[in-house]
Model the fold of this input.
Amino acid sequence: MSTIEKGQVMTANRLGDGLVVFLNRAGNWSEKIDEATLALEPQAAAALEALAAQDVKANYVTGTYLFDAERVDGRIKASHIRERIRTLGPTIRVDLGKQAEGKAGAFAAEEA
Amino acid sequence: MYRYDEFDAKFVNERTAQFRDQANRRLKGELTEDEFRPLRLMNGLYLQLHAYMLRVAIPYGTLSGAQMRQLAYIAEKWDKGYGHFTTRQNIQYNWIKLEDAADILQALADVEMHAIQTSGNCIRNVTTDHWAGAAVDELADPRPVGELIRQWSSLHPEFSYLPRKFKFAITGAPHDRAAVKVHDIGLRLHKNAAGDLGWEVLVGGGQGRTPLVAVTVREFLPQNELVAYLEAIMRVYNLYGRRDNKYKARIKILVHELGAEKFRAEVEAEYAKHPAQQTQVEEAELARIAKYFALPSFEKLSRFAPHFEDAKLSTPEFARWARNNLAAHQVDGYTIVNISLKPEGGIPGDASAEQMRVMARLAERYSHNELRVSHAQNIVLPHVRLEDAFEVWKALKEADLATANYGLAGDIIACPGLDYCSLATARSIPVAQAISRKFADLDKQQDYGPLKINISGCINACGHHHVGHIGILGLDKKGEEYYQITLGGSSSEHASIGTILGPGFAADEVPDAIETILNTYVKLRHSGEDFLSAYRRVGPKPFKEALYAAA
Done:
């Protein structure tokens, strides 16, 4: 049985190109959700918030927030479909966005 | 052909330079997001789910071939090769970089276009009948008055910080194709017994979370009093419109809270304070504006078009398209070509750069260099010779633009929904695609007759679900998308807001539910009775019974 860890991921849009990015513990932003840090504790989430706030000030990202996610078999799954779509790209144009660029998360938005 | 004037040219170029500076300051960190957001929104630049989105204004939906080509160029150079035509007769690009935005605005300015007043609490891009200047039932082309309103309202200092956004729609024809009764202000042209033209002024319509049909505040306003009268309405709104609650800030709330009588009295009192003579629009000025919309010089043609008739006989597929997608033109020998941007299983309103170029070329060659964007997310070639219709169709077919479903079940309005929009609560496009596939059979669509299926991915109702004959609203229930169905909405001159039928459906249940509704209609309709008329005769009961009986 695989273990499931629940936590939170920090996300934002990159200022210059608007693309969706996720934060890791070292303070780097990645376009891939699987490179994000899943904060399991409130303190870890607060640390991500502090890092994110610095990068808002540094004008690297905008619109930062935490969303709920879990780690399933080593990959990060956003709890809400909205965030899953942000890790992929439009579900009706799978030729576009992260899903077309090898940067997709592992969890599809269910068929609508 | 519409062109904006020399004042606009200077202003738009200055504005583009100004925005370039603002964007650079933002990128260098000299402006914070809070400082920059209102500035970018004033230039149509939003931040959406995957990237920045640029909404480009297309006044009255009117475009030249060169402008459409430029839209194609922008799609290829700075986006991912396509654009989305919207229910506001605009186009949106979904993958814009802030770093490129000023260059794009400059590329737009080069063809007399811009993205000003496509966002913010100001008077937005005025929308009109997409058949303006061509429709057979038209009393007069509504676009000069639209342009008058645009020139009056653009950067009007008194109306730049309204309680909320403000939308005008105008029709010059008795059959309302511009949805004027569900706009903040709708204008509808009438002719009185003496043969004079005058405008009916409707106020307080709207969709969103509080859908309401507008009320008439003036039955018949002479054209030269229009600006003064609209100013009086805007003043009453600016003074009394609520600013404490975003959801109660639209003029529709004011009109319906005060009551139509009281609101009208306030407007008339305000109007009386400022004698009309002071702000009356001069005939010469109106004539100058009207010149921008001068109709092309049409040829004198026979009403009978032999090539057209032959082609219909020899090519049934063309005959079907001609039946469904052509509309009568006010000049003999001409027709209005409605290009459906709703291919079977396609994304409503999307067009590739290549398709845009095909349409631009056809407009230049066959439609006096004119195209229109309709609020139903289709493109119109307004002035095509009947004898050219077959050639146009062949070229459209090659570009996958000849779907013969105009005004039928497959001609679905859908907002971008959760696939693109950061406000959405559910996806719209996949539901539209599933319905489109389910009713792919054009014989079946023709049997169902005129039908408007409108889908919104949230309560803001960009997909006009409240006024769909069948409306679908996507919502979020504990993280799951589900869809509420309404029936009986209409945006015509007999406008109405749809009624919610009952509990919502999961996405994959929606196409079957729509089929149940349509089968119920087929069973109970009188001969020749369209869906909306049948619904209005029988009400929601038989549809509810059919939909929820099994449960």
